Amino acid sequence: MRAAGGDGIEALAWQAGPRQQAESLRMRVSARVLRDVCRTLRDHPDLRFDYPGDLCGTDLGSEIHLWYRLWSHEHGRSAIIDVILPSSDAVVPTVSDIWPGYDWHERECFDMLGVRFEGHPRDGDPARMRILLPEDWEGHPFRKDYQPVFSGDPLHGPQETN
Amino acid sequence: MAGSEAAQVRLEPDGGMTVNLGPQPPSTHGVLRLMVQLDGEYVRSCEPVIGYLHRGLERMFEARPYRQLVPFTDRLDYLASLNCNLAMSQAIERLGSVAVPERAQYIRVILCELNRLASHLVFFGTFAQDVGATTAFLYAFRERERILDLLEAMTGARLTYNWIRPGGVPADLPEGFAEGVLSFVRDLLKELPLYDRLLTNNPIFRMRTEGVGVISRDVAVAFGASGPVARGSGLSYDIRKTEPYEVYDRLDFDVPVYDEGDCMARYRVRMDEMCQSARILEQCFRDLPEGDIATKMPKVFRPPAGDAYSRTESPRGELSVYMRSDGSPNPQRVHVRAPSFVHLSMLPCLLRGVKLADVIAILGSLDTVLGEVDR
Amino acid sequence: MAAANMTAGQDRRAVAAGQITAGVILLAALLALASVGYHAVERVRDTPVVAFIGEHPLLNAFAKSFIVANFVTLHVLFLIWWERKFAGWMQARLGPKHVGWNGLAQTVADAVKLLLKEDIIPAKADGRLFVIAPFLVFMPTLLTFMVLPFSASWVGYNFGLGALFALAVSTNVSLGILAAGWGANNKYSLLGGARACAQVLAYEVPLAITVLAVVAVSGTVSLVDIGAQQSRWWNIVAHAPVMIPAFVLFLICALAELNRTPFDLPEAESELVSGFHTEYSGMRFAFFYLAEFANNFFMAGLAVTLFFGGWFGPLLPGPVWFTIKTVGLVTAMMWIRWTVPRFRVDQMMGFCWKVLVPASLVVFCASALWGMWVQR
Hints:
The structure holds three protein chains of three kinds. Helix content of chain A is 19%, strand content 30%. Chain A has helices spanning 2-5, 34-43, 102-113, 126-129; strands spanning 9-15, 24-29, 51-59, 63-72, 77-86, 91-93, 116-118. In chain A, strands 1-2-5-4-3 form a five-stranded mixed β-sheet. Chain A has a two-stranded parallel sheet with strand order 6-7. The longest helix of chain A is centred in the middle third of the chain and has 12 residues, at 102-113. Chain A is globular, with a radius of gyration of 18 Å. By secondary structure, chain B is mainly alpha-helical. Chain B has a single domain (57-374), classed as Orthogonal Bundle (Cytochrome-c3 Hydrogenase, chain B). In chain B, 46% of the residues lie in helices and 11% in strands. Chain B has 15 helices and six strands. In chain B, the strands form two sheets. Chain B has a three-stranded antiparallel β-sheet. In chain B, strand 5 and strand 6 form a beta hairpin. In chain B, helix 3 (81-95) runs antiparallel to helix 4 (102-130) and helix 6 runs antiparallel to helix 11. Chain B is globular, with a radius of gyration of 22 Å. Mean pLDDT of chain B is 85; it is low at 1-7. Chain C is mainly alpha-helical. Chain C has a domain at 117-374. In chain C, helix 3 (57-90) crosses helix 14, helix 4 (106-116) crosses helix 13 (282-307) and helix 7 (173-183) packs antiparallel against helix 8. Chain C is globular. Chain C starts with a helix and ends with a helix. Residues 1-7 of chain C have low confidence and may be disordered. Chains in contact: A-B, B-C. Chains B and C meet through strand 1, helix 4, helix 5, helix 6 and helix 7 of B and helix 1, helix 5, helix 8, helix 12 and helix 15 of C.
């Protein structure tokens, strides 16, 4: 595992799950080695994290915290990857080609937090990358500094919102 | 009045046609829009467009204290809101290491399984409607009505229950609830073979569902399919078994798995699950212990900084909640992993080359609820 | 509580059953009234005024058209009510209940509502086609009723080639449907119209062959003569070995011709909204509805004439018997409609060309041989 990530892996530990749950592998990884780590996680016979569970981004102010969770059907345990990005330049390589299930999760993350997923099939085309919000939406509402702009009477719905 | 030279339905140069299925027609189960490229009756490609029901729930969670989060989850998967309540409550409990009394756990399981039954009955009805059979819908809703009556007697609501709360449940079972549920379960088990005779064994129904919308095991895994969709593709994956929560590890039930991966397999999984839910309900009432129904939660709940994750098996699949606390009374981030969202992302890959009528059948067999897709 | 629920369910079924009983009683009353009416009409027929109209070619044609048009329009009011009631009974619900006795006037109320609605023509529709399509659908239906024999004398026009005429005319419905689908300039309508056209034309083939099978057995193409031959034994009894399979084929093809479930692909609600009549509202929509139900009655009537002894039956006069049998067959079609799911378009076409056409050819050959054997 360490070999795949080299010095990109900042922390790595097995964690006991809450109550009856299986233990999970939790690691903090730099964006640089994310793809190598993910490929190892998916393909290594002792790991085999083949199920893309979840992706959640959190705006911590000056940095953005990405949280990937994987599950291994074969070994019945999960892995959690933490990636910390600077808010000003939130770019991370995509894993949607490793697990196609991350396609929409990454789009949602872009939509809400403005994280760029380098190499995503729709990367560089914000209108098509948007998923929940309208194509012409401006800004990323889950950023803590996001201010909704009302260009009209706020009582009259989202078409007045910008 | 326009003459015959008026602009006619626009065809693409190669004879294709783009049809917008939705966001309004009834068969897309909510406000989902499918941009379907058609070549005659065949689908060339399909692009789901979602977000018509987006209410920014995840952002709203961040602006409220922990104890006010649960009512919002009713609006996620509105067909199984108790299951959503449970996922959220569990996440809060794990974040603050709150223990839940055993009786409350049993009551939660009872509520969730009842809601699972109600949701699967809606699936049965709407799926039948999707392939053109109208009568099954009304039979399913007749049975569902009894569940709603029972849940109404318990919670006072018929759709948005808000009854599984952090720490336990707000009130004990009402009088006669157990008898009501058990008699309903008995009747339902008698009704299910009738449904098989009406629909499952109907040759036209089988023609419409067998071999249609096949999801192979590998595709199901790679996309992160869960719940009946995964189990219809030969993947024995049920959070209630793999990572048991509440008292599911003490209950005896099977996980129905079918290998075909087509609409029929997903349909059968859900039909079999109804029997299993009935088994679970009977066991719960048999084992229901006496005791408290809730752990007292402080008025202002401040969990320690950190994150917690709760995975539950909703009727649609793996519904999980990620919650992150910075020690303040409001959560820093709440993320809901909605199974329908994941299943919808499979659509472009699933629908290539099928016929228009199959689009609706496949969509129906995924049993998505747009409330949790758009959040 | 649950017990209360269960009895509520049973009550509902009991009430629905009660309503069906009420419907049957109503039907019986209607039949008695119809018998009385029949004799009254027969008496009126002999009056000099009517005799004069009968002899005058123009007045004769006008009077008959008037009667047929009114019958076609009015009997649908009853059929729609009956379908709703019957579907309600099948689906453990009540059906219409509030307008009139047991909701009997519900259809009238609906018709009035549709009449008063604004006639909307979409801006980008092909106006002329859009406007004319409902009539293109309705006219063939009206025409087919001209040759439908309610009894030996109660027939609009005793046409020697009645069976062929009926088939030929009823196919033209697809023209109207296609016009509606194309004229509305709506993609759902277009798909619905295309499906309907393909379906009606394809199923016309086995339908015609099955009718020919009856013709081969009867030795005549006139519907009146085919009916008259069955005064002792119905065709389906007298020639059971060939006529039972022929009837099954006829019923399947008729369902397809009528665009009814399991062949309701042209208006497949789940994928095409309403298919070819998506854009229609008000009276134009009502015409589609009218044509659908009238067609239903006609197809059932044709089946009764071909297989079920036409107007012959004990006690009641011929036209009454014919109506009873036809409504019974219409009810059977409703039963099928509310039970089964819908075919997919390729399955529907495959079923026609791979199963029905060969089967109908086999039945036709068998009927021809049977007819020769019987006549010898």
